[in-house]
Amino acid sequence: MNQAQSLYPLIEQALLCPVVDDKLALAERLRRDWRGGLLVREASPAAYALPQPGRPLRPELVHPVRVSRRSLATRHGHGALLHAIAHIEFNAVNLALDAAWRFRDMPDEFVDDWLTVAAEEAGHFRLLRGRLADLGFAYGDFPAHDGLWTMCRKTDHDAMVRMALVPRVLEARGLDVTPGIQRRLAGIGDHASVAVLDVILRDEVGHVMIGNRWFVRLCRERGLEPQATFRGLLEQHAMQLHPGDYNLSARAEAGFFADELEALARLTESVSDGR
């Protein structure tokens, strides 16, 4: 009979692991062992500020303006686009692990949700890395930026703020841009990558839904009105919702409020009208 192990040191091991395949395997094993009752939440010190998770030496991390252009007119541009998405998914593994590891006063359901997200993000990365290999590239062949982990650091003091600004803003934006990326890939005949993004989009709706659910729950536990609180956090962190294409059906499925969707629809219409 397997003896139960302490949860938090194992999550920390996965977070700090710099070897890509080992990190992916650890994330998937954490979900499996947690679901199998093999991990226990023993009393442990509070999580510390983590400047960087474990990551390989490549890709080189640069300012966003230095990230490779992603025109699909060339194989290089095609690869750069898929690499950028793969980098997001790799970072998403770390963000999900960090949520499960950091916010230790949250209930077991929170741990279960974010370990599940981490394992699914690992699967997404594997799919995208496979498409990169089909094009003759590997993860690390293109520079990348560190915007996702920067937001992770900015929100490491409060689970409610994390749920607001990572799932409800950054990950939700992924719901918006994916259909357009799929159309571009279909236009060059890359239907295999379109199919991969179908899987990712389906799962990401669930991930954003998890963030929405916990944000609303935490607001209500604190006697806060969720939408006003969200708007206040956007202002506090100088984040804006700009005119553009919003995937309103995916956002509705992920649990955004009706009046939020109406406001986003107006932003979408302002682009269509040329305003």
Automatic annotation (TrEMBL):
Sequence intervals crossing the membrane: none
Q: Which InterPro entries match?
A: DUF455, Ferritin-like_SF, UCP012318
- One Pfam family from the record: DUF455
Q: The organism sits in which domain of life?
A: Bacteria
Give the protein's recorded name. Answer: Ferritin-like domain-containing protein
**Species, as recorded:** Chromobacterium indicum
Q: Which lineage?
A: Bacteria, Pseudomonadati, Pseudomonadota, Betaproteobacteria, Neisseriales
